[in-house]
Every structure is written in structure tokens, then in C-alpha cells.
Amino acid sequence: MPWRASAICGLAASVTFVGGVLLGDVAQPDAFSPANDDISDLGALTASSPWLYNQVAANLTGLLVVVLALGIWGALGEGLLSRLGVLGLLVVGVGLFLDGLFRLDCQGIDGACENTSWHSTAHRIEGGFTSTALILTPLVLALAFRRLPEWRRIWLPTLLTTPAVIAAGAVLSTVGSGASARAASVVWFLWLALVAFRLLRVSSEPRGAAAPGELVEKPPTSRYPR
């Protein structure tokens, strides 16, 4: 996967997620409250313009995160921490994509709302795996970045991402559970944009050494002495 293309997809992922959620909030009826209602309610069967969340914030964003993860897989090279961190990103990407497919039956504002269908159950199970990956992935990648000269400059911001996500969610929880989830998500996607931007910079820097598994072709030498 070309690194530059992956980096651009990573930058776009932050825009599609935040934009899809924001526009989805605006499209809901007056009874809907972004401060109190869950993000997943935006894609429920009873939601207004559910495609803004399901196809933009979830499906499209998930695919973009997967493409970014594939680029980082090649850029980081060998190493257990690198591989585990990238696998965490892949879990997030796949989870977001599935989030737009496994829809809730109804929104919290609907009377007698009960999400009992198989796809609502699948949504909750997938959400558990995705949330865990969201929390753990920055921690693992921070340790991987610290070992690599090209990535070392963002290892500390990456390490602080998980505490920042938790802190943002805790602070906004005083407003409501919906505000808490949205604030935490925005912080996480800001970090994702930082990682994508670093990949973009790495892709444009001269590569002093070959990538893993790549042979360096030596320039031909003249047979005649100078």
C-alpha cells in the first residue's frame, strides 16, 4: 500500500467521521439531543438521514482507517509492538465499517425503544471490541514509535492520547453521555490525523535504508579509474 495514499486516507478519515456525526446530529428531530443521545442512534432504523452516519461516519471512515493501517504496516516494519498496534487500527477500521451495517432498531428518543434484533445485538458486541481497540491501540503504537527514529517525535503525544480520550469523556460526561462519547471520539480522531500526517512526512523523506524485505540496488561503478 503506497504510504502517501494511506496517509491521505487517514487524514480524510477524521473529516468523514466528525463531519458525518455533526451533520447527522443536525438532521435529527428537535427531540434528539447530541448531549444525551448516543452516537449510534444516528444510524438507527428510525433515525433521520441515517446514511450520514452509516455510510459516511461509519462505512467510509472504517475503510479509510483500514487503508491507513495497511500503509503504517509497511512503514513501521518488523516488530511485535508495531504489528500489534497496526492490528489494533485494523480492528477499529473494521469495527467502524460494521457499525454502519449492524444498525440499532430505534433511537433513545423513541417511545418504548427496545433494541432486541440480531443486528442490534451484533452492534453492541462489535462496539465492545471497537471501544477496547480505540483505548489500547495508541498505547501500543506509542511504544512502537519510541523505537523508530522516523516516528519517535510523535511517541509522547501518542502515549498521552488514551489519557486525553478518557479525560475528555470524563469532563463532558457532566453535560451528558452523548457529549462524552463525541468528545472522546474527536480527541481520538485528532490523534489519528497526527499519525496520518507523520506518515505523509515519512513518505516524502529520503529513505536512507531499504524497507523490510527490499533490496538496495547499488549504483554501477565505472571500470575506469578517475
Give an overview of the whole structure.
With 226 residues, the protein is mainly α. It has one domain. Helix content is 64%, strand content 0%. It is built from 7 helices and no strands. Helix 2 runs antiparallel to helix 3 and helix 2 runs parallel beside helix 7. The longest helix is centred in the middle third of the chain and has 29 residues. The chain is elongated, with a radius of gyration of 21 Å.
What percent strand?
under 5%
C-alpha termini separation: 42 Å
Q: Main β-sheet, in a few words?
A: none
Helix content: 55-70%
Number of strands: 0
Derived structural class? mainly alpha
Envelope shape: elongated
Number of domains: 1
Task: Give the overall average pLDDT.
Answer: 89
- What kind of assembly state do the chains in view correspond to? single chain
As residue ranges, the low-confidence spans are: 208-226
Helix count from the secondary structure assignment:
7
**C-alpha-based Rg, rounded:** 21 Å
Topology pattern, helix = H, strand = E: HHHHHHH
Secondary structure layout:
Blueprint: H1 3-27, H2 51-76, H3 80-99, H4 118-146, H5 155-159, H6 161-172, H7 177-204
Helix pairs in contact: 1-2, 1-7, 2-3, 2-7, 3-4, 6-7
Offer a few descriptive terms:
single chain; 226 residues; mainly alpha; disordered C terminus
Write a brief structural summary.
The protein has about 230 residues and is mostly helical. It has seven helices and no strands.
